[in-house]
Structures are given as C-alpha cells and as structure tokens.
Amino acid sequence: MENLNKIDFSYFIGQVVTDVNIDENLPLGIIFQKGWLMIECPWRIRKGKEIILGETDCISEPKKFSHKNVKNLLVSKKILNISFYEQLIFIIEFEDNLTFELFHASSYFEGWTLQGDNGFDVFTLPGGEVCY
Q1: Which residues lie across from 54 on neighbouring strands?
Q2: 81-89 — which CB contacts under 8 Å span 24+ positions?
Q3: What ranges in 35-82 are assigned the alpha helix state H?
Q4: Is residue 116 classed as helix, strand or coil in its secondary structure?
Q5: Considering the entire predicted model, what is its pTM?
Q6: CA separation for the pair 77, 66 (Å, rounded)
Q7: Digits of tens for pLDDT over the chain (132 positions)?
Q8: How far apart are the C-alpha atoms of 26 and 91, rounded to whole Å?
C-alpha cells in the first residue's frame, strides 16, 4: 500500500486526546488539544497486532462495548504518527503501542472528518474520495 504523504498531518503529531464522545446516538468523535476527528465508518483499535476494540464490538455487544471503552483507551494518549493509504485506510498511532484505524466503507455516506483549529480540514466523501 502506498502512503499518500501529500497530506501533511504534522499539525496533529504530539497532540493529546482530551475527550471522546460517549453519546451512543451520535457518531464516534475524538477530541484533540487543537482539533477533532468525527468517525462515521468502520474503525478498530489495536494494541500491537491484537485488535482490542472495534466498531463491530460496540454494535453487536453494546452492553459490553461502547464509546466509553474508546474513551478509557485513548484519553490522555499522545499522537505519534498519522498515515493515510491509497485504499482509504486512515491510521493514527498513539503512545503505548495503540493504533486507531478507519476504513471508509460506503458508496453513499461520508466516512470521517479530521479538523484542526488552524483551518486544517480533511474528509472522505461518499465512495471514498478524499477532500482537503
């Protein structure tokens, strides 16, 4: 997979997760010190090579898994790296060997939006086209 490095994500490197939306009736939202990420597509969190939480878990077993689990895992974690690949896989690497991965999976709906307080704005349109 080719890393689409024409998008400069350096603004977010070093920022810390300050909050996660835990309202189950709203899309998953992750708040950083100077920006935010809204997710409306499949996602998962890995620790090393092991998947420790995914969107499917929250949908299939909501009494056991929820956005609260995401909040417990990611709040206070620093962003170490962000990668975006040609097949529309968006990856945020956090400290403590945690990785948050997004997969745009719809021809009809938008997938995710990443915005920074500095005017940075990247999002995926229906079908997966990236706009920035």
Answers
A1: 44
A2: 81/13, 82/9, 82/12, 82/13, 83/3, 84/3, 84/4, 84/7, 84/9, 84/130, 85/1, 85/2, 85/3, 85/4, 86/1, 86/2, 86/4, 87/1, 88/124, 88/128, 88/130, 89/1
A3: 55-60, 67-74
A4: strand
A5: 0.92
A6: 18
A7: 455 557 899 999 999 999 999 998 899 999 999 999 999 999 999 999 999 999 999 999 999 999 999 999 999 999 999 998 866 789 999 999 999 999 999 999 999 999 999 999 999 989 888 888
A8: 22
CA distance 11 to 2: 21
**Residue labelled with tokens 């709040």:** 75
How far is residue 48 CA from its own chain's centroid? 17
* Amino acid identity, position 75: V
**Amino acid letter, 61:** E
In the chain, where the domains are located: 10-131
User: Which structure tokens are listed for 66?
Assistant: 């929820």
CA angle 108, 113, 114 (to 5 degrees): 160
36 membership: H or E segment, kind and range: strand 35-39
